[in-house]
Fold:
Amino acid sequence: MRAPTFWLVASLVGAAFFGLSLLVPNQYYFQAGYVVLQYIVLATAWNILGGYTGYVNFGVAAFFALGAYSSVALYKLAPLPIPVLVLIGGAVSGVVGLGMGYLTLRLRGAFFSIATLAMAVVMQTLITNWDYVGGSRGAYILRPAQVPILGNYIVYLFLVMLILSVIAIGVARSIERSRLGFGFASIRDDEQAAEAAGVPTLRLKLVATTLSGALMGMAGAPLPYYVTYLDPSSGFSLSYAVNSIAMPLIGGMTNWIGPLVGALFLGTIQQLATVTISSALNLLIVGLLLVGFVVVAPNGIVGLVERLIAAARNRR
Amino acid sequence: MEVSLDLLLGAIVAGILLGGFYAAVSVGISISFGMLDIVNIAHPAFIILGAYAAYIVNSSFGLDPILTAILMLPVFYLLGAGVYQVYYAVFERRGDEALRGLAFFFGLLFIIEVSLVLVFGVDYRFVEAPYIGPTLRYGAVDLPLRMLVPFAVSMVLVILLQLFLSRTFTGRAIMAVSQDRLALQLMSANPAKIKRVAFGISIATASLAGAFLIIIQPVEPSVGRDYIGRVFAITVLGGLGSFPGMVTAAILLGIVESITATFYGPSWSPAVAFGVLLLTLAFRPSGIMGR
Structure:
């Protein structure tokens, strides 16, 4: 499929999905759906850096919360529409991603991972000590109850997140098929050989961190309007990090389908577990699935399915 | 702000004591990350496990936490050896340790933490020992015994480990394994076995570090996360795998953190370690005593 066709199909699928969603009478569906969609964006964004170039980012929560907190800061200044907030949140996190990458990407992979973890804590400390956005007490956001045309505000947020996930997936797929994507893959497979062959590795890695960070910031920007109360410990919660890493690993990291499958699978399980069992058990499920998959099925669900298809072909 | 000399002196002494404790927390990472090249980000979770082991034995039998930790060393050694066995079979042998190995330990971190939450809840737990209350005073300087005892035991631990690594065949093989696997094989030592021993030792130190932690402060399952950055900051700043460097870095970080907490408030102290780590990685990745 050519890129424009793919964008068209993805948009149509998104529109059809939204149309079908409107038929669901239950409010809770949109509440839960928003979270799953948010994880599709986060997992896809993580995979652009983690899956395509092989650099593990543990600081997802930092990029995500930066997007959310830029919305909080702007909320105190002037009321802006959500799409504008999304763009600004994305810009802030993208710039931080660029700076972060510039500081650490010349080092070995593991150092980058540890540094991203470190950055998450530095950011959290800064936000906790910044009184303007509420400090450790947190910030309240008053959102309008209704929006024109769509009616309910949650439905509006759901739509914004749905559009963002279509964009994220579209971006991920276009990267895969482009020079950029081949450059990323060469870094993942053998960085030294890529460098020797003339691939501008540092520049490509910077592109990946910036893109990935920007998408995470965009996913975070509507968060304050969704939760209406945001404090640093929930915005920077490590569960965002573990989920965004677990989803691509469980789904499969080599292409855009993996994070999508992983986010749908894990996100839905978590929503069900939160309702039926307990939310503490959520993280245990994620942890167990993450370890289970990396040990037993290193190529994720997509890898398993591909193997099954190959086996079925061979039998014929 | 007026800087009083007494306050500064007190902060420095408190920082040195804190640094001794940080050395015990980091020594395991110094072995696993510094020498074996295994990025065990779940190490702080094992430390919390050690803290809970000390808590259980202390609250039900009244046994001293440090004594408990020493008795638990073999258990943690076996745990570590077991984890390495899985890690080796699944990742190292396939040459897949970089990305999926990291994810493996990250998942392990959550499994340990959430299991502790499910069993013990999120209440803060603490231990009782005769040295937790009293404080020695010399003029303006306070030496709380609950800091002094972990400091002393931790220094003994690091010195013993250093002697083990530099004087015994196994110890030297551990130092060698990250430098040249092939040469080690030619000396008829099996690298996988040596690494298993070393990783077991690194997890065993978590038992003691956990006991120190719960002596110093009450513990709940998620406090381990605060230490991830600290231990890596110390290990990297110390120059991977060098014990003298690691102890120097631990004490330096302890002093800086303690001064920050005294003069700017404790809410800033987590950022210190991470700031130090980021600056080290950006400007001097080989650390202060790196080779």
Observations:
- Strands of chain B lie at 135-138, 141-144.
- The CA atoms of residues 53 and 69 of chain B lie 8 Å apart.
- Chain B touches chain A through 43 residues (CB under 8 Å).
